Amino acid sequence: MIVLRFLRTVAGWTAILFSTMAHALLIGLNGESDVSERLLRNWARLFLWVAGARVTVRYDAPLEKGRSYVFVSNHTSNLDAPAILSVIDHPLRFIAKKELSRIPVFGWAARRMGHVFIDRKDSSRATKAIRGRIERGLTGAGLFFFAEGTRSTTDELLPFKKGAAIAALDTGLDCVPIAVAGARDVLKPKGFSLFQPGPVAVVFGAPIPIAGHSLQQRDALVAEQRQAVERALTEARALVSSARAR
Question: Second label for 101, Cα 20 to 30 Å away, from 3, 117, 119, 204?
Fold first, then answer.
């Protein structure tokens, strides 16, 4: 069984690598467009299929089509982003660590599509980069943050960074909490991991209104975001448990 899983994983990662480069090239050529949105969603669904992830989604409240939001999620695995992309009907612009921009073709394509790479060790430059993206206009796209800043290897949420809160306050956009559960079991967060097919749940919590918050009270908004993600995470874990019981 382990041998078969190993062979499946090696073949799967090979397919994902080629798919990522092919999709990145096409996205880079098409830039920030509807074509790129479809390509990105197709890549995400292919990644999930190869890994054997079965995704369930729940929205606690409807999101207004064509409206921009700041999306804030937990981070447990490299499978989180594909899982979210496969089920969301809003275009997303990821705020990602600058190390990813060095991946050949991928980094160029991501920039062409409007995603933003930041230096997590330089908060002032990171804030400037995010504000630059906002100034270029979002036109219905959402800003997406893995608020913990890195993948958590335990069931506990890590402390949330302030970037998502500052972006929401700068733009006046409501915040949407997202929780992903089950992804870590399919694909471990660190190092080489054998695929373990199974259920993954994505829960979109009710939007957090930005009205009434100020930049001086950003810590309170960060705490509110974290609490909302925790509530959504409880729902997501219940969905995963239910799927496993069937």
Answer: 204
